Amino acid sequence: xxxxxxxxxxxxxxxxxxxxxxxxxxxxxxxxxxxxxxxxxxxxxxxxxxxxxxxxxxxxxxxxxxxxxxxxxxxxxxxxxxxxxxxxxxxxxxxxxxxxxxxxxxxxxxxxxxxxxxxxxxxxxxxxxxxxxxxxxxxxxxxxxx
Length: 146
Prior knowledge:
Elements: E1 2-7, H1 13-30, E2 46-52, E3 55-63, E4 72-79, H2 88-99, E5 108-113, H3 117-122, E6 126-134, E7 137-144
Parallel strand pairs: 4-5
Antiparallel strand pairs: 1-2, 2-3, 3-4, 5-7, 6-7
C-alpha cells in the first residue's frame, strides 16, 4: 500500500472525488448515516490516503488542534470493504497518529464508534466520558497522549 498525506489545497480533483466517494460509500450507504459530510473541516485538515494502484483502500482526516477539539484529531477513518480483515485499519491509524506529529506534542482526541473501543484502546487511546449518540451511532470520546 502506498500512503500519501496532503493538505486540502494539494488534493487534485480526482483524488478529492475518490475521497468523497469512499466516505459516502462507508458512512452514508453502509452505515446508513444521513449527515452532511463536507462540513467545512476538510479545508483545514490533512488527508491521509492509502492507495493500492489507483484504488483508495483506506482514508483518514487529520485535523489540527483548535478546529474540532482543543487537541489534534483524527476523523472520517475508513477502510473500504475489499481491504478489511488485513490489518489495514491498524496501519491506517498508526500512520494517522504519526501524521499528528505535525501538530507538535498535542494529544489526539477522537470520537470513536463505540463498537471499535477495543481497537482504539489497543492502539493506545483511552476512553473519556460516557457513550453518546452521533448520527444515531453509539460513540465515545477517546484521547491518545504522546
